[in-house]
Amino acid sequence: MKDHRVATMIQDVLLGSDNESYRLSAWVVMPNHIHLLATRFEDYTLADIMQSFKSLTSHKANKLLNRRGQFWMLDYFDRYIRNAEHFLKTMRYIENNPVKARLCKRPEDWPFSSAWFRAQKEK
Q: Which of 61, 88, 98, 99 is deepest in the core (most CB within 10 A)?
């Protein structure tokens, strides 16, 4: 995902599924992983959402990169959000990821993130 074409595609897929199978609250596409904070809709399981997302994006990424094979790790890590405070801390953690990795100075400077999108709307 160091290739901006791949990062853009992954972000587009995340946004394209927003309000279909989940409500997306925060995300960041990093050079080697992603974080997202989403609330799944009742008719969808997290496993189904992740399988669909990984399948679609891996095929598209491999095509963009002119390669074949596994793109994502087989598993994923999930967390149960316990309350509003935990939700806000998780959102800050996600959006601050590129700053912590020294990819930018402020969360809203990273174009593959919810912080950037929110900053653009406020302009």
A: 98
